[in-house]
Specification:
mainly alpha; 11 helices; about 65% helix; flat
């Protein structure tokens, strides 16, 4: 109205400010660190270093042994554990250091992720640079990251009682939680990024959603396979030691327990689910005919080759680690496909309304 100014009424909608680019850059750093953590976890598992530290000290654990006496004490603690007693009872300090340092850096990296997540979050929050919609999502990310550390210790603890290895169920849960945390971070990054490539494509959206879920299923059996060292059971392709359906798949009773605890059965399931996943991603790429779809299809083929190479090599450490990293990269491409098949929001996640 003409007399609005006299009463100091604002004209038009409330002022809108978007989240600064530094917030998205920070989340990209967090996602990259989680990705590195997943690869470090693979290396720790493949080198059987995960049980080298038999205590969980969230604060004082950042300081490694600094003297020869401290190293001897740490070694004695390890030699009293199941793995130390039954597998590496003749370890010397230099041999022990080889497995200790990898697990130490794995845990230290997890703490660094927590700091890189918490400190900038507090900074951006205090300075009012986060939108109301973004704040609870970032708090959830921080809390879930902390719980992931607890789950990691629960996994390690399962190998410190009466067995020289961790529970393959807890290992699978730890890996899947890390991957889910990474996927959640990537999704926030996509929500805060450019939205010009988005369009409403329900068909692609449904297919990508199904394939994302399928990736988690395939990774579950991959993790179970890794926890049971089932990758060493059959190192031929395309058959399993000359068999399309290998013997021994239902040796355990009841029959359904073979799906979760029989290494041969788990490898068989993982192989065929992986092939179906690759086929599904290639069909998605062909039907979508978009750059992100082609990227997903290409990554699926790379991941298939890495899986075959891992099997044929007898689970060589570098190839097996690359295979786990490849699964995460494939998931990333599918998240991009899924995100770009959604129409742009009327109210962006990055908007701060009524500052």
């Amino acid at each position: 109205m003409p007399d609005d100014a006299a009463f100091q009424f604002p004209h038009g909608p409330p002022a809108m400010k978007t989240v600064p680019a530094t917030v998205r850059a920070w989340l990209i750093l967090v996602a990259a660190m989680i990705f590195v953590m997943i690869v470090l976890g693979a290396l720790t598992r493949l080198t059987e270093s995960g049980l080298s530290m038999v205590e969980w000290k969230p604060v004082t654990g950042v300081i490694p042994p600094l003297t020869e006496q401290a190293w001897q004490e740490e070694l004695q603690k390890y030699l009293s554990s199941p793995q130390g007693r039954l597998v590496n009872r003749d370890f010397t300090v230099p041999e022990f250091k080889q497995i200790f340092w990898l697990e130490f850096f794995h845990r230290l990296w997890g703490r660094l992720i927590g700091l890189v997540m918490a400190l900038p979050l507090a900074w951006f929050w205090i300075r009012g640079q986060l939108s109301p919609a973004l704040k609870p999502r970032l708090v959830a990310l921080l809390v879930l990251g902390g719980l992931q550390g607890v789950l990691g210790w629960a996994m390690v603890a399962s190998g410190l009682v009466d067995r020289p290895s961790v529970s393959h169920y807890r290992l699978a849960a730890h890996l899947l939680a890390a991957v889910a945390l990474y996927a959640y971070t990537v999704w926030l990054i996509l929500e805060l990024g450019p939205q010009t490539a988005r369009r409403d494509d329900p068909g692609t959206r449904r297919k990508a959603s199904a394939l994302i879920g399928f990736v988690f299923v395939v990774m579950t059996f991959g993790a179970l396979m890794a926890g049971l060292r089932a990758g060493l059971a059959h190192n031929t392709f395309p058959t399993m030691s000359g068999y399309w359906i290998p013997p021994g798949m239902f040796d355990l009773s009841p029959w359904w327990i073979n799906i979760f605890e029989n290494g041969t059965t788990i490898q068989f399931i993982h192989r065929w689910l992986a092939k179906l996943l690759v086929l599904g991603v290639l069909v998605l790429a062909w039907r979508s005919r978009r750059p992100e779809g082609y990227a997903a299809g290409g990554m699926a083929l790379v991941q298939l080759c890495l899986g075959i190479a891992t099997i044929l090599s007898g689970v060589e450490i570098a190839l097996a680690s690359a295979h786990q990293a490849g699964a995460v990269l494939l998931l990333t491409t599918l998240l991009v496909v899924r995100h770009r098949a959604i129409p742009s929001r009327a109210q962006p996640l990055s908007a701060i309304v009524g500052r």
